[in-house]
Design a protein that fits this description.
This protein is of the alpha+beta class and 424 residues long. 37% of the residues lie in helices and 21% in strands. The chain has helices at residues 16-32, 46-53, 58-63, 82-91, 136-152, 172-183, 192-200, 214-218, 229-245, 289-292, 307-314, 332-347, 361-371, 381-386, 407-416, and strands spanning 36-37, 43-45, 65-68, 74-77, 101-110, 122-131, 160-165, 250-251, 263-270, 279-285, 300-306, 325-329, 352-354, 375-379, 388-393, 399-403. Bound molecules: adenosine-5'-triphosphate and magnesium ion (MG).
């Protein structure tokens, strides 16, 4: 038996209603804020990610699925979407459009990680990018929209929003030297990787998940004390706008995020319910990145939501609705009368299921129950002779007759009269 590749999973029909609900909420909320969908390829030139994510990041160093194609080009399955969306922005000349250019995309990402609950090698994100505007109100709007997405799913109360500023190019060197000075005496308490990071990329230490490093990280100096006046004013303004909109957050001075390209505002949405896979979404401002990818000097801000983790949080609450009715012909002649009625109902968007006249009535009624059908429509030779069918309400067993000629209309009426949405 050939099984799915490790860390890669099927999303089964029992789960897809939850996925559809999450995706629909994302589209609804993002589009209300003026975002338009863009769909970018699943693979790109390796160089795009090396330059767009940063050579020193875990993603580029350890997690990419990189391969050479038959033409000898080095390609990589996308580990995140921002670099791809920015590549498209530059390639298609989006910078001439009214700013900010607001884009979102959804789909699979690929990272070679150790698979566990909430961590896979193919996983899905919803990504948002707002390009070409530096105003801090945009940062606040983007963050508010992210929280509205969780609110639309009824999850807001189970999540914590953390925001920080990691300053601008003027801030970084000042803070990094303070951090290195602080870390020096603690070198031996850090994991091997962080010891190497002190010299190569000390900021990344704040993002280390190794438990042994946490006591050192917790006492590290706050980057907020090193912010340039401009970066301080930007962050204060973001906070004022968040407060004005009633968005609740915690300031987290050690939140630096795993990617090299962030400046100023960074944020993360956490849950306590998924063990160490506690980050549900993260994002930040990346003002130099478009230029770094040979594009215009346009700023940007965005976030990524980990959809598997959102779906996990939703639990089993969403179920696929069964068909409105199971049509049960008892024999070939009845089948030929019910087939067109089923087709008309389906054309009208009413889901019905049809037996093929080869099983006995008790078996078909049992099937109606297992499918979760609300109604059974039964037609045997006696009913055909009278030009009728029997409609049975599955929950009560109550039965009545309808003319076969108007059965399709009756099914459309029953389908339209459903008070339950398809996905609850
Ligand atoms: P983590 O710290 O959990 O590794 P990250 O910082 O690498 O997350 P980002 O690159 O910011 O994650 O991606 C945004 C979101 O995508 C994360 O908050 C998480 O919800 C989700 N995510 C990241 N990697 C995976 C994965 N391997 N499997 C499932 N979801 C993931
Ligand atoms: Mg990661």
């Amino acid at each position: 038996m050939i099984k799915a590749v490790r860390g890669v999973r099927d999303i089964l029909p029992s789960e897809t209603p939850r996925w559809q609900r999450v995706e629909a909420a994302a589209r609804r909320v993002f589009e209300a804020y003026g975002y338009r969908e863009i769909r970018v390829p699943l693979f790109e030139r390796t160089e795009l990610f090396a330059r767009g994510i940063g050579d020193e990041t875990d993603i580029v160093k350890k997690e990419m699925y990189t391969f050479e194609d038959r033409g000898g080009d080095s390609l990589t399955l996308r580990p995140e979407a921002t670099a791809c969306v920015l590549r498209a922005y530059i390639e298609h000349g989006f910078q001439v459009e009214p700013k900010p250019v607001r884009l979102y995309t959804m789909g699979p990402m690929f990272r070679y990680e150790r698979p566990q609950a909430g961590r896979y090698r193919q996983f899905h994100q919803a990504n948002v990018e707002a390009l070409g505007e530096t105003h801090p109100a945009l940062d606040a709007e983007v963050i508010a929209m992210l929280m509205d997405f969780f609110g639309a799913l009824g999850l807001a109360g189970r999540l914590e929003l953390r925001v920080n500023s990691i300053g601008d190019t003027g801030t970084r060197p000042v803070y990094v030297s303070r951090l290195v000075e602080y870390l020096g005496p603690h070198r031996s308490e850090l994991c091997g990787e962080c010891q190497a990071r002190i010299d190569r990329n000390p900021l990344r230490i704040l993002d280390c998940k190794t438990p042994g490093c946490q006591p050192v990280i917790e006492k590290a100096p706050s980057i907020l004390d090193s912010l340039s006046p401009e970066a301080t004013e930007h962050f204060d303004s973001v906070r004022r706008s968040l407060d004005a909109m009633g968005v609740e957050y915690k300031v987290a001075p050690r939140l630096v995020r795993g990617l090299d390209y962030y400046v100023r505002t960074t944020f993360e949405v956490l849950t306590t319910e998924l063990g160490s896979q506690n980050a549900v979404a993260g994002g930040g401002r990346y003002d130099g990145l478009i230029a770094q990818l040979d594009g215009p000097a346009d700023p940007g801000i965005g976030f990524a939501i980990g959809l598997e983790r959102v779906v996990l949080l939703l639990g089993d609450e969403a179920h696929a609705a069964g068909p409105v009715a199971l049509l049960i012909p008892l024999g070939e002649a009845a089948l030929q009368r019910l087939l067109p009625a089923a087709r008309r109902a389906r054309q009208g968007g009413v889901p019905v299921e049809l037996g093929y006249g080869i099983r006995k009535l008790p078996r078909e009624l049992e099937r109606a129950n297992r499918l979760g059908a609300e109604w059974a429509v039964i037609a045997g030779d006696n009913e055909l002779a009278r030009g009728e069918a029997v409609i049975r309400e599955m929950s009560t067993g109550a039965q009545r007759h309808v003319p076969l000629d108007t059965l399709a209309e009756e099914l459309l009426r029953l389908g339209g009269a459903r008070t339950e949405p398809r996905y609850t």
